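Incident log, structure service

09:12 report received: a user says their structure output differs between two submissions of the same chain.
09:20 pulled the input from the user's history:
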Amino acid sequence: IANSSGCSSVWGGSYGLSPFKKNRFGQGPAWARSLFEDTAEYGLGMALASQQRRERLIEDVKELLQEAEDEGPGVVASPALTTLLSKWISHVDDAEKCNTLQPEIKRLLAEEANPDSAAQLQVVARGQDMLVPPSHWIIGGDGWAYDIGFGGLDHVLASGQNVNILVLDTEGYSNTGAQISKATPTGAVMKMAAGGNSAKKKDLG
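09:34 re-ran on a clean worker, output below:
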Protein backbone atom coordinates (compact mmCIF):
# COMPACT_ATOMS: atom_id res chain seq x y z
CA ILE A 1 0.00 0.00 0.00
CA ALA A 2 1.25 3.44 -0.97
CA ASN A 3 -0.66 5.89 1.22
CA SER A 4 -0.65 9.62 0.56
CA SER A 5 0.16 12.09 3.31
CA GLY A 6 -3.01 13.45 4.85
CA CYS A 7 -5.88 12.29 7.03
CA SER A 8 -5.90 8.79 5.52
CA SER A 9 -2.25 8.21 6.47
CA VAL A 10 -2.90 9.58 9.96
CA TRP A 11 -5.62 7.06 10.76
CA GLY A 12 -4.05 4.43 8.48
CA GLY A 13 -0.72 4.41 10.29
CA SER A 14 -1.68 5.13 13.89
CA TYR A 15 -0.94 2.39 16.38
CA GLY A 16 -4.13 1.04 17.91
CA LEU A 17 -6.28 2.42 15.12
CA SER A 18 -4.75 0.67 12.10
CA PRO A 19 -7.34 -0.64 9.61
CA PHE A 20 -4.87 -3.23 8.34
CA LYS A 21 -4.42 -6.70 9.84
CA LYS A 22 -2.79 -10.06 9.22
CA ASN A 23 -4.69 -13.16 8.10
CA ARG A 24 -4.49 -16.58 9.77
CA PHE A 25 -1.26 -17.31 7.90
CA GLY A 26 0.43 -14.20 9.30
CA GLN A 27 0.23 -12.40 5.96
CA GLY A 28 -0.69 -8.73 5.81
CA PRO A 29 -0.09 -5.56 3.82
CA ALA A 30 3.20 -3.74 3.53
CA TRP A 31 2.21 -0.12 4.23
CA ALA A 32 4.23 2.98 3.41
CA ARG A 33 3.40 6.68 3.39
CA SER A 34 4.53 8.96 0.59
CA LEU A 35 4.69 12.70 0.07
CA PHE A 36 1.38 14.38 -0.67
CA GLU A 37 2.24 15.13 -4.29
CA ASP A 38 3.82 11.89 -5.53
CA THR A 39 1.82 9.01 -4.05
CA ALA A 40 0.71 7.70 -7.44
CA GLU A 41 4.26 7.60 -8.77
CA TYR A 42 5.49 6.06 -5.52
CA GLY A 43 2.88 3.31 -5.74
CA LEU A 44 3.67 2.73 -9.40
CA GLY A 45 7.33 2.29 -8.52
CA MET A 46 6.42 -0.30 -5.91
CA ALA A 47 4.30 -2.19 -8.45
CA LEU A 48 7.03 -2.12 -11.11
CA ALA A 49 9.60 -3.37 -8.60
CA SER A 50 7.35 -6.29 -7.65
CA GLN A 51 6.75 -7.07 -11.31
CA GLN A 52 10.49 -7.10 -12.03
CA ARG A 53 11.23 -9.32 -9.05
CA ARG A 54 8.47 -11.75 -9.99
CA GLU A 55 9.64 -11.97 -13.59
CA ARG A 56 13.10 -12.78 -12.22
CA LEU A 57 11.65 -15.54 -10.01
CA ILE A 58 9.83 -17.07 -12.98
CA GLU A 59 13.08 -17.24 -14.94
CA ASP A 60 14.93 -18.66 -11.90
CA VAL A 61 12.34 -21.41 -11.46
CA LYS A 62 12.54 -22.30 -15.15
CA GLU A 63 16.34 -22.56 -14.86
CA LEU A 64 16.00 -24.75 -11.76
CA LEU A 65 13.56 -27.08 -13.52
CA GLN A 66 15.88 -27.36 -16.50
CA GLU A 67 18.83 -28.18 -14.22
CA ALA A 68 16.73 -30.76 -12.40
CA GLU A 69 15.82 -32.40 -15.71
CA ASP A 70 19.43 -32.41 -16.89
CA GLU A 71 20.89 -33.76 -13.64
CA GLY A 72 18.21 -36.35 -12.90
CA PRO A 73 15.71 -36.86 -10.04
CA GLY A 74 16.75 -35.69 -6.57
CA VAL A 75 20.09 -34.15 -7.53
CA VAL A 76 19.14 -30.47 -7.71
CA ALA A 77 15.77 -30.67 -5.94
CA SER A 78 13.34 -33.35 -4.82
CA PRO A 79 10.78 -34.71 -7.32
CA ALA A 80 8.03 -33.37 -5.03
CA LEU A 81 9.41 -29.84 -5.24
CA THR A 82 10.03 -29.89 -8.98
CA THR A 83 6.48 -31.19 -9.55
CA LEU A 84 5.00 -28.34 -7.51
CA LEU A 85 7.19 -25.75 -9.22
CA SER A 86 6.12 -27.07 -12.62
CA LYS A 87 2.49 -26.64 -11.59
CA TRP A 88 3.30 -23.13 -10.35
CA ILE A 89 4.84 -22.20 -13.71
CA SER A 90 1.67 -23.43 -15.43
CA HIS A 91 -0.52 -21.18 -13.26
CA VAL A 92 1.87 -18.30 -12.63
CA ASP A 93 -0.68 -15.63 -13.59
CA ASP A 94 -3.47 -17.10 -11.45
CA ALA A 95 -3.09 -15.58 -7.97
CA GLU A 96 -5.55 -18.00 -6.31
CA LYS A 97 -3.82 -21.11 -7.63
CA CYS A 98 -0.40 -19.68 -6.76
CA ASN A 99 -1.68 -19.03 -3.26
CA THR A 100 -2.85 -22.64 -3.01
CA LEU A 101 0.53 -24.00 -4.13
CA GLN A 102 2.62 -21.58 -2.07
CA PRO A 103 2.53 -23.22 1.42
CA GLU A 104 3.82 -26.60 0.27
CA ILE A 105 6.45 -25.05 -2.02
CA LYS A 106 7.69 -22.91 0.87
CA ARG A 107 7.78 -25.92 3.20
CA LEU A 108 9.88 -27.93 0.75
CA LEU A 109 12.18 -24.98 0.05
CA ALA A 110 12.76 -24.59 3.79
CA GLU A 111 13.71 -28.28 4.00
CA GLU A 112 15.90 -28.45 0.90
CA ALA A 113 17.53 -25.04 0.41
CA ASN A 114 20.66 -24.57 2.52
CA PRO A 115 24.26 -23.42 1.99
CA ASP A 116 25.21 -26.86 0.68
CA SER A 117 22.33 -27.27 -1.77
CA ALA A 118 22.40 -26.43 -5.49
CA ALA A 119 23.06 -22.74 -6.16
CA GLN A 120 19.95 -22.35 -8.31
CA LEU A 121 17.77 -23.83 -5.57
CA GLN A 122 19.12 -21.22 -3.15
CA VAL A 123 18.32 -18.48 -5.69
CA VAL A 124 14.71 -19.64 -5.95
CA ALA A 125 14.40 -19.83 -2.17
CA ARG A 126 15.51 -16.19 -1.84
CA GLY A 127 12.75 -15.05 -4.18
CA GLN A 128 9.94 -17.15 -2.70
CA ASP A 129 8.07 -14.08 -1.38
CA MET A 130 7.05 -13.48 -5.02
CA LEU A 131 5.37 -16.87 -5.50
CA VAL A 132 2.01 -15.08 -5.29
CA PRO A 133 1.65 -11.83 -7.29
CA PRO A 134 1.21 -8.96 -4.80
CA SER A 135 -1.90 -6.79 -4.95
CA HIS A 136 -0.80 -3.14 -5.09
CA TRP A 137 -2.93 -0.30 -3.73
CA ILE A 138 -2.54 3.46 -4.01
CA ILE A 139 -4.64 5.29 -1.42
CA GLY A 140 -5.23 8.99 -0.83
CA GLY A 141 -7.81 11.66 -0.25
CA ASP A 142 -9.37 14.13 -2.65
CA GLY A 143 -6.73 16.76 -1.91
CA TRP A 144 -4.19 14.36 -3.38
CA ALA A 145 -6.26 12.84 -6.21
CA TYR A 146 -8.12 15.95 -7.41
CA ASP A 147 -5.41 18.52 -6.84
CA ILE A 148 -1.69 18.32 -6.08
CA GLY A 149 -1.28 14.67 -7.10
CA PHE A 150 -3.63 14.68 -10.09
CA GLY A 151 -0.85 14.71 -12.70
CA GLY A 152 0.75 11.62 -11.20
CA LEU A 153 -2.60 9.89 -10.88
CA ASP A 154 -3.32 10.54 -14.54
CA HIS A 155 0.10 9.14 -15.47
CA VAL A 156 -0.47 5.93 -13.50
CA LEU A 157 -3.92 5.38 -14.99
CA ALA A 158 -2.53 5.92 -18.49
CA SER A 159 0.31 3.45 -17.85
CA GLY A 160 -2.07 0.47 -17.78
CA GLN A 161 -0.18 -1.02 -14.84
CA ASN A 162 -2.16 -3.47 -12.72
CA VAL A 163 -2.68 -1.36 -9.58
CA ASN A 164 -5.72 -0.55 -7.45
CA ILE A 165 -6.49 3.09 -6.65
CA LEU A 166 -8.72 4.13 -3.76
CA VAL A 167 -9.72 7.80 -3.50
CA LEU A 168 -11.19 8.73 -0.12
CA ASP A 169 -13.32 11.59 -1.35
CA THR A 170 -14.42 13.74 1.60
CA GLU A 171 -15.16 16.64 -0.78
CA GLY A 172 -12.89 18.98 1.15
CA TYR A 173 -9.41 19.33 2.64
CA SER A 174 -10.11 17.30 5.78
CA ASN A 175 -6.57 17.22 7.14
CA THR A 176 -6.26 21.01 7.35
CA GLY A 177 -9.68 21.95 8.68
CA ALA A 178 -12.24 21.15 5.98
CA GLN A 179 -11.49 23.89 3.47
CA ILE A 180 -12.97 23.89 -0.01
CA SER A 181 -11.25 21.60 -2.55
CA LYS A 182 -11.66 20.73 -6.22
CA ALA A 183 -13.87 17.85 -5.04
CA THR A 184 -16.31 20.15 -3.25
CA PRO A 185 -19.78 20.15 -4.90
CA THR A 186 -21.36 23.30 -6.28
CA GLY A 187 -23.14 25.32 -3.59
CA ALA A 188 -21.45 23.62 -0.62
CA VAL A 189 -20.69 26.00 2.25
CA MET A 190 -17.22 25.41 3.69
CA LYS A 191 -14.20 27.36 4.84
CA MET A 192 -13.06 29.70 2.05
CA ALA A 193 -16.52 29.33 0.46
CA ALA A 194 -18.87 30.88 3.00
CA GLY A 195 -21.30 31.87 0.26
CA GLY A 196 -21.31 28.41 -1.30
CA ASN A 197 -18.88 26.92 -3.79
CA SER A 198 -19.37 28.52 -7.19
CA ALA A 199 -17.39 25.92 -9.16
CA LYS A 200 -18.41 22.44 -10.26
CA LYS A 201 -16.90 19.39 -8.64
CA LYS A 202 -13.95 18.13 -10.70
CA ASP A 203 -14.61 14.94 -12.67
CA LEU A 204 -11.78 12.43 -12.32
CA GLY A 205 -13.23 10.59 -15.31
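09:41 both user submissions now match this output. Likely a transient worker issue. Closing.
09:42 reviewer note: Helices lie at 7-12, 39-71, 79-90, 95-112, 119-126, 142-148, 150-159. The two ends are 23 Å apart (CA to CA).
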